[in-house]
Specification:
By secondary structure, the chain is an alpha+beta fold. It has 9 helices and 9 strands. The protein has a 4-stranded antiparallel sheet with strand order 3-4-6-5. Strands 8-7-9 form a 3-stranded antiparallel sheet, with helices on one face. A two-stranded parallel ribbon has the order 1-2. Helix 1 runs antiparallel to helix 4.
Length: 281
């Protein structure tokens, strides 16, 4: 179909639809692939695009632009599943927030992001890094506790053990679906108290002084993969050093070489001739 051809053209990956077929079947069962490619979903005249399968290894601005274009051209119904809240906010008309298998809040994206009405949504948004804010000035907030264990009996409110405004009522009564303006809803006994939630920030760790010896030193580390007579340079003359007591972060897009560098340092991948890796054991 048209959207699958456009997807392959945009990503430059021939056979991408076949590659994501296991994910389609895992999510929707056998036969779902045919329904998707015909643009059918439970007999409705929709063109569903399941972008959990797109917003993954091939995520890029061009793919997101393609989704926008196809949504307009085909009047597509799009279900976008992603950890990337920035993408969700920019792409989606509505957003549903899930916790422990339940949708705890749903509404128009702008309203949910600007004025959350469930404690988990509020805590999640407060945990996001802020552009231009240094961690020394505004440390990241963290949500205490953890998700319920898989298979464990869920409490009446799935978020009660981590919620700062939980009361005994939350432990004894299942939260109702509270209808809000604009078709929005939340599952909470105390939605009017959510605005007062402030998640505690993680303590700021003092910056390490570079006084120790080198724990790791890389000099001109390269890694070239070869396949079918072609060469693909994954790492090109990487130089870096890491000293005792210091934390070094490596960031970059998918495919930029981060994992290959880690595997090369660990010896899982062999580096090219001329590379030098020194580890202080």
């Amino acid at each position: 179909m048209r959207w699958t051809r456009r997807l392959e053209e945009t990503t430059g990956l021939d056979g991408v639809v076949d590659a994501i077929e296991p994910s389609i079947q895992a999510a929707f069962g056998n036969g779902a692939r045919g329904e998707l490619l015909r643009g059918e979903w439970l007999g409705h005249a929709l063109h569903p695009i399941l972008t959990d399968l797109v917003v993954g290894p091939w995520v890029s601005a061009s793919v997101l632009d393609l989704v926008r274009t196809l949504t307009a051209e085909m009047n597509a119904a799009v279900l976008m599943i992603s950890h990337n809240l920035g993408v969700i906010r920019s792409m989606c008309d509505r957003v549903g927030v899930m916790y422990a298998g339940r949708v705890v809040e749903e509404g128009r994206s702008a309203e949910v992001f600007e004025s959350p009405r469930h404690p988990y949504t509020a805590a999640l948004l407060q945990s996001l890094p802020r552009k231009g804010a240094r961690k020394a000035d505004r440390p990241l907030a963290t949500i205490p506790g953890s998700l319920p264990q898989l298979g464990a009996e869920l409490p009446t409110c799935v978020y009660v053990d981590r919620c700062p405004i939980a009361t005994e009522r939350c432990r004894s009564e299942v939260p109702p679906v509270v209808a809000l303006d604009g078709g929005r809803y939340t599952r909470c006994h105390h939605p009017d108290q959510v605005a007062g939630i402030h998640v505690a920030a993680a303590p700021v760790t003092a910056r390490a002084e570079r006084t120790g010896g080198d724990a790791l030193a890389l000099t001109s580390v390269s890694k070239t993969f070869r396949s079918g007579g072609h060469t693909v340079p994954a790492l090109v003359k990487v130089d870096l050093e890491l000293r005792d007591g210091e934390t070094l972060g490596l960031v970059g897009e998918s495919g930029s070489g981060k994992s290959t560098l880690a595997r090369t340092i660990l010896g899982i991948e062999s580096s090219d001739p001329g590379s030098r890796i020194e580890l202080d054991h």
